Amino acid sequence: MKIKIIILVTASLFMMGFKADKPAYRLFNPEGKEVKYSKMLKEVLDADIVFFGELHNNPIAHWLELEITKELYNAKGDSLVLAAEMFERDDQLIIDEFLTGSYEADKFEAEVKLWKNYKTDYKPLMTFAKDSGLYFIASNVPRRYASMVSKKGFEVLDSLTDMAKQYIAPLPLEYDPEVKGYKDMLDMMGMGGHANENLPKAQALKDATMAWSIKEYYVPGNTVIHYNGSYHSKNFEGIIWYLNKYLPGLKIVTLETVSQKNIEELEAENLGVASFIFAVPESMTKTY
User: Fold this and answer.
1) What's the count of helices (H) and strands (E) in the chain, helices before strands?
2) CB within 8 A of 184, min separation 6: which ones?
3) What is the pTM for the complete model shown?
4) Which residues pair with 224 in a beta bridge?
């Protein structure tokens, strides 16, 4: 009897070292208070524009993107529009042809400039749009133009043809180097002594073009969900900074994915970065 009691006590002490559960994420509001998924969803369903700031190689972020998109579709039907940083504006025609059934998936994938994690992370969204009859906006600037700006600054855009300029936000591009995201980017680069003042400008070109893409396609009464890297919508800057200039007065809800060693509470640096923050364990597996 004593042996059994000792074993039970030892087992209980051993088990105390384990968590009762092991969540893949925890959801917080800007103040760091944990909130329910249903509360977040209520805000999302009432928004004009939803930005999902992802960690590109995080499977939980991609799963949540798809699940939230399905929830929006169930409530909004064909008034929902999908949009993504991962597709460039000069590929819009091919995407349109794929969505309307003119192209088979293998031919579509061979022609569009796809990210290396397309099949695991973005194909489910594109397939869902096609199967549901939803429009999908290729919102980003063609990468060749961002590359040109990163080397030579905004002035190089003046040399583009009128046809090329259709794929970027209207010129001249408003740019504020004091916007925190751009300033932080330059400060981080400067730490190594290799600061390139044009790199934040290339980022701004992407942000402005994505905002302009949303502006072009947005119709009052519709909801647009835009998928982008977290840096493009973090702190309500980036794309949102430009969208508020192009189309002020919209109700915007931002969702941000952050990686933390401990997700029991939101780390100080992640407070206030979005309307809702998904904290994911650092140990989470990656898609690449």
Assistant:
1) 11, 7
2) none
3) 0.91
4) 49, 81
